[in-house]
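Hi support team,

I'm filing this because I wasn't sure whether my run with heme C finished correctly. The job status page said complete, but I'd like someone to confirm that the output block is well-formed before I use it downstream. Pasting the exact inputs I used:
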Amino acid sequence: MARFGAFRSTAIATLTLLSTQQGVLRAQEKQAPKSAPASVATTSQPNVPVAQYVGSETCKTCHEKIYDGWEKTPHWKTTLNTAGGPSKQGCEGCHGPGADHVAGGGDVSKIFTFKNVSTKEINNRCLTCHAGGPQHMNTINSIHTQNNVSCISCHSPHHSETKEFLLIKAQPQLCYTCHLQRKAEFEMPFHHRVNEGLVNCTDCHNPHGTVGPKQVRTSSTQNAVCFTCHTDKQGPFVFEHEPVKIEGCTSCHLPHGGPNVHMLRVSNVNLLCLQCHTNSAPNGKTGNAPGVPSFHSQKTFFKSCTLCHNQIHGSNFDQTFFK
Ligand code: HEC
Ligand code: HEC
Ligand code: HEC
Ligand code: HEC
Ligand code: HEC
Ligand code: HEC
Ligand code: HEC
Ligand code: HEC
Ligand code: HEC
Ligand code: HEC
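And here is everything the job wrote out:
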């Protein structure tokens, strides 16, 4: 695992060296929860008298094993949040006030247990501290939330299997527990090396929700996620190839993987180009793509279009994307 981790960091670092943008994007997201707990004023337990809270040390007297595990997680930090008050601290920050539970000798009906409650109730508990910031601001309406995938479908504050992020399982296995069909795409001959641990699902997706479709991340400037690693494709170029900018990378590439070189949607580059560059009636979507000049006839010669037009993502020198 450690070896994979190092491999992943080195490989990504080579790509991201070119890309300060990815750094900025991740940094912004990571800052969010740090400031969130102190700055969020709302609470899931309004108007509960302070006397109803007993403090984590009391919980420890009966739940020592849980306490010892929990003490090693980042949530331990909440005990230092004196400004937030007892409803934001320790065990009771999530489980709510515990005085009645303790008085009842551990009466389970007097404590919030996360069992038999709705996704909304679970999420709201966690969001009292984790709302806001670019990472979580779209959680409430995300497709995961709508389908009852709650915070604790992926995270476990007490029984996590990962060093970071309190995940139930490491990626990509976490995601494959529900998205098994996607696994086959990453096993195709040409693919992003997700199964190998080089790229994560969450490099491209935000499972907490996004503004755009399919939970695909965008940068803070709303650019396609692909540019965070493939910076050389971003330009700006003097001569842009319109579909790269307008329809996006996925108009020609499959994002996960596929049977064709360079993860192209079509097996033959020429057929890809000719989907848009036809001399026959334009097909609406690609109406302004010029047809190929007559000397290009596929009958008289057959050469890969990108043999000549090889700066297909954009060029600073040539309008027809030669070198
Ligand atoms: C970040 C929120 C959070 C904090 C803080 C927290 N818990 Fe929990 N607790 C949960 C959730 C969620 C569950 C449901 C099981 C799971 O998903 O891990 C749970 C389950 C439990 C259970 C049921 C048994 C089990 O092993 O799952 C006990 C007991 C418990 N917590 C006690 C505590 C004690 C004691 C503390 C403080 C040391 C504490 N919790 C702090 C969220 C939290
Ligand atoms: C006097 C001992 C005692 C103290 C103190 C205590 N508990 Fe418990 N707690 C119990 C017992 C007994 C149970 C039920 C046994 C079981 O099912 O594990 C329990 C169960 C729980 C459960 C799990 C219920 C379930 O079935 O999932 C949670 C959550 C919990 N306690 C949280 C807390 C928190 C938070 C505190 C501190 C505010 C706390 N307890 C303090 C004795 C105690
Ligand atoms: C579908 C799975 C999934 C769900 C649902 C989910 N998370 Fe996450 N969460 C992840 C993964 C994977 C990571 C780590 C990768 C990353 O940075 O996005 C993460 C990271 C985090 C982080 C740390 C990173 C950061 O920048 O904030 C927090 C805090 C967090 N999640 C809280 C929540 C809360 C609160 C909920 C419920 C409202 C939730 N998550 C729902 C999968 C999920
Ligand atoms: C009382 C406030 C509070 C509540 C409620 C809360 N958290 Fe947190 N959470 C924090 C703080 C503080 C951190 C540490 C942030 C940091 O290290 O900067 C944190 C960190 C995390 C992380 C990141 C762990 C890592 O390794 O970086 C995850 C994931 C997370 N919380 C999930 C949850 C989930 C799921 C719930 C609901 C079951 C929840 N939190 C409820 C305050 C809270
Ligand atoms: C507990 C099950 C579960 C887990 C775990 C889970 N998902 Fe999902 N996910 C769903 C469900 C249910 C949907 C709703 C749409 C569907 O059926 O695909 C969904 C939707 C999505 C979508 C949007 C699909 C669309 O058509 O708009 C993406 C992207 C996604 N998940 C990515 C992830 C990633 C990345 C992870 C791992 C970090 C993950 N999911 C973990 C259950 C899950
Ligand atoms: C290199 C970026 C990238 C990675 C890595 C990635 N995805 Fe995606 N994924 C995308 C893009 C872009 C789309 C949207 C495709 C579209 O709209 O045609 C997408 C679409 C999806 C969808 C919706 C599929 C559909 O046909 O509607 C799901 C579900 C999904 N991804 C899950 C995952 C899971 C699970 C992982 C990790 C195992 C993962 N993705 C890794 C970029 C990525
Ligand atoms: C108009 C179709 C089209 C679009 C849109 C497109 N590509 Fe490509 N891409 C290609 C073709 C064709 C090749 C293979 C070039 C060759 O045969 O030499 C390729 C090759 C690549 C390669 C591998 C070779 C290299 O140049 O590094 C990467 C990486 C790549 N594309 C990324 C992207 C990204 C990122 C985007 C979005 C910014 C994108 N592509 C948009 C057609 C496209
Ligand atoms: C987290 C970084 C990252 C992101 C984000 C990313 N890629 Fe990649 N991509 C890579 C790496 C690393 C490789 C090299 C794969 C290898 O050699 O295994 C690659 C390879 C490719 C290739 C194949 C290059 C070849 O030579 O055949 C294409 C095409 C491509 N990516 C397109 C995309 C598209 C489209 C997106 C956005 C949906 C995207 N990438 C997002 C890291 C990324
Ligand atoms: C999704 C549709 C689409 C695909 C696929 C596509 N193109 Fe284009 N292409 C366009 C559009 C639209 C323009 C912009 C025309 C303009 O600027 O007026 C363009 C412009 C061009 C131009 C510049 C024409 C000029 O004189 O300005 C060349 C050369 C070209 N494409 C070659 C290719 C090649 C080679 C491929 C295959 C690798 C390809 N295109 C794939 C839509 C597409
Ligand atoms: C042998 C080299 C070569 C190959 C292979 C080639 N082209 Fe060209 N292409 C050219 C030349 C030369 C021009 C004219 C450039 C100019 O006018 O400056 C051109 C021009 C174009 C234009 C611009 C037409 C306009 O009206 O502005 C398009 C579009 C185009 N090619 C598409 C393609 C497509 C699609 C393929 C593959 C089916 C392809 N080319 C294969 C050499 C090539």
